[in-house]
Amino acid sequence: xxxxxxxxxxxxxxLCLPPVTDAEKRxxxxxxxxxxxxxxxxxxxxxxxxxxxxxxxxxxxxxxxxAYFDKVWTGDGIGAGNPAIQHPHQHHGHPxxxxxxxxxxxxxxxxxxxxxYPGYMEGAVIAAKHMADKLx
Length: 136
Hints:
Elements: E1 2-3, H1 6-11, E2 16-17, E3 19-21, E4 28-30, H2 43-58, H3 121-135
Antiparallel strand pairs: 1-2, 3-4
């Protein structure tokens, strides 16, 4: 799996790309997830940004796919009405996740507790380093 993280993740609607192939390994593709803010862009702009990022990662051939599809889930389908989760990552890094519990015998350390890049692999590494510093 290939995920864009860090500064690139902040600048561009990011992709997390688990590779997909057919059984004969003749056809290849990616399924990706864009950041929530990407919903504000038109489909054409999202396509341009995604294909530009793929071109940077894999070369210019990646900018001319056989097909490109994306779906914004806000306002219809699963996101219609009053969804339980308004926006992903909205509570990650919350100060209550930084404290110790049960007289400092229980701590939480995961990507969701990270104060930087929460919800991504980079956030998990940051949270682990922070916890290691706290415990040593």
